[in-house]
Amino acid sequence: METKKLFELLVNQLHNLHSLKEVMIEQQKAIVRNVISEVEKAVEEEERILNRIRNNERDRINEIVSLAGKEGISLETPSVNEFLKIMKTNNDPNYETIFKVRNQIILLAYEINNLNQQNSYLIEHSRKFIKDTITALYGANQHKIFDRKI
Predict the structure, then answer these.
(1) Are 67 and 52 in contact (CB under 8 A)?
(2) What are phi and psi of 137, to 5 degrees?
(3) Could you list the pLDDT tens digit for every one of the 150 residues in the chain?
(4) Which of 10, 124, 95, 112 lies closest to 57 in space, CA to CA?
(5) Is 76 a domain residue?
(6) What is the dihedral sign for C-alpha 102, 106, 108, 113?
(7) How far apart are CA 20 and CA 50, in angstroms?
(8) Any domain includes 82
(9) What share of the chain is helix, strand, coil (3-state, %, to 5)?
(10) DSSP class of residue 72?
(11) Residue 21 sits in a domain of what CATH number?
C-alpha cells in the first residue's frame, strides 16, 4: 500500500501540534505576566496554527478515503486507528512508522489538552479576581456592570 503521502500528512500534523504547544506555552506566560499584547499575539498565532491543523486533518481524511478506495477496503470512519488495523491485518511494511507517528500525535494532543485546561483555569481565576476586586472597591451593587463574558 502506498502510504507515503499519509505519513507525510501525519508528520506535518505532528509539527503543527508542536507549534501549537509552543504558542500555548507562550500564551500561558503572557497570561501570568499580564501582558495583553502578547496574549493577543499568541491567540492570533494559535488561530493560524489551528487553521493549518484543520486543513491538514481534511487532507488526511481524504487521503485515507483515497487509499481505502484504491485497495477496495471499506472503512466505517476514515480514522488513522481503523486504517492501522487494516494495515496490520495486511502485514503492511509501513505499519510501524505510521503507528509511531500516530502515538506521538496522541501524546502531544494530551499535552495540548492539559495546557488548554491550565490556561482556562488561569483566565477564569483572573476574571474572578478582577470581579472580586471591583466588588470590594465599589460595593456589591455595582458588580453587574462587569458581569459580562469576555
Answers:
(1) no
(2) -80, -40
(3) 788 999 999 999 999 999 999 999 999 999 888 888 999 999 999 999 999 999 999 999 999 999 888 888 888 888 999 989 888 888 889 999 999 999 999 999 999 999 999 989 988 887 888 788 888 887 766 545 555 555
(4) 10
(5) yes
(6) positive
(7) 8
(8) yes
(9) 85, 0, 15
(10) T
(11) 1.20.58.300
Residue 124 C-alpha cell reads as 477564569
Using the structure block, give the residue that is written with the C-alpha cell 483566565: 123
Rounded distance between C-alpha atoms, residue 23 and residue 50, angstroms? 11
Does residue 149 sit within a domain?
no
Structural domains counted in the chain: 1
pTM (two decimals):
0.82
Closest to 47 measured CA to CA, from 24, 31, 28: 24
Enter the C-alpha cell of residue 18: 508542536
Cell digits for 114? 492539559
Q: CA 122, CA 65: separation in Å to the nearest integer?
A: 41
| Grid cell at residue 47 | 488561530
